[in-house]
Please model this.
Amino acid sequence: MNNIISVSYYTFLEMVRNKVLYVLLFFALFIFVLGIAITQMTIGDNLDIISDIGLGTIEIFSTVLAIFLGINLVQKELTLKTLYPLLSKPLSRTEYVLGKFFGMIFLIVVEIIVMSLIFLVLLHVYGGPERLIAYLPAIYTIFLQTATIISVAVLCSTLTEPTVGGILTISFYLIGATSYNLVYAITHRTSENVAKVINTLRYILPDFSHFNIKDNLVYGRGLEGLHIGFASFYALFIVLIVLSLSVIFFNTKEIN
Model:
């Protein structure tokens, strides 16, 4: 456990020193400011609009961080050959992979907290800071979704080069984000047999609709038909499966 914590800590410090992190946070702040401008040009409840933009920005930039920092976690150290002295110490490959994962999780938690504080300031400007409490379930499910993406990024980082890993991780995100609507559209326009096959695939492919509750909260529909407990279990299930694969593949990987 101490080894996992140590790797997590140094992974977090390494990511914080990465200039990409600050660039992304800058653009996140830019999007928030852009949201203020949009409210001036849009007809509707300004608080709802800024809430939608704020939560959407938190989700987008959490995803971007998870993908573009996560895919370099292992391959970067392999390239720089800084991995060899680490594994020569009393540190197992399993501890190394788990430490990398939890280091990224810690980074994402900090990033979400920072962006949520910026979001709170915007809500205060528009007279609705108390809304952040109501939005906490949505922020939590954004974290759950991001955790699944991080686990896939870690898996890809142990298997292949960053470019290929990035493509695979982005594909995982796109499938998860669109699978529910895609399956729904296809099954309502095909034969019964094809619809059964497509519905079966729905249980195999990642489905991020379980995490998508921000629209319900922003526009007053509440959590009707949505279950935070199931979303938590679903994310945990994906993370455990993917991390297990990461550990298995990395333990069998030849490191020269």
